[in-house]
């Protein structure tokens, strides 16, 4: 099998679960974009610069992404973070994105380095 046919086969196989998720009766959080985001602290991100999945600002971020953003906004968040609004063939877990502290509490907005799947998040206080 040629490399392009193998890639097409992997792409088709990856699309099947997404299509069934779209047509199922599950909630909008089970959309193709967010399937791997359901437990982000466990599966989706690495943390750096003093952040952990228990850091309040990280918990706020995931609460907003998972519970307040529309599916369209979740795709925009993914694009901001990774440069693409779609998960790769290997799934979001293959990206290994990093949420890194960007200094102390400040008026700065989060920034990202899409080439490295890294978001710089200021350490906002409560």
Structural key phrases:
126 residues, alpha/beta, 4-stranded mixed sheet, 40% helix, globular
What can you see in these coordinates?
It comes from Tetrabaena socialis. Keywords: Ligase, Transferase, Ubl conjugation pathway. It catalyses: S-ubiquitinyl-[E2 ubiquitin-conjugating enzyme]-L-cysteine + [acceptor protein]-L-lysine = [E2 ubiquitin-conjugating enzyme]-L-cysteine + N(6)-ubiquitinyl-[acceptor protein]-L-lysine. The chain is an alpha/beta fold and 126 residues long. The chain has a single domain (3-121), classed as Hect, E3 ligase catalytic domain (Hect, E3 ligase catalytic fold, 2-Layer Sandwich). Helices cover 40% and strands 11% of the residues. The protein contains 4 helices and 4 strands; from the N terminus they run H-H-E-H-H-E-E-E. A 4-stranded mixed sheet has the order 1-2-4-3, covered by helices on one side. A hairpin with a 4-residue loop joins strand 3 (111-113) and strand 4. The radius of gyration is 16 Å and the shape is globular.
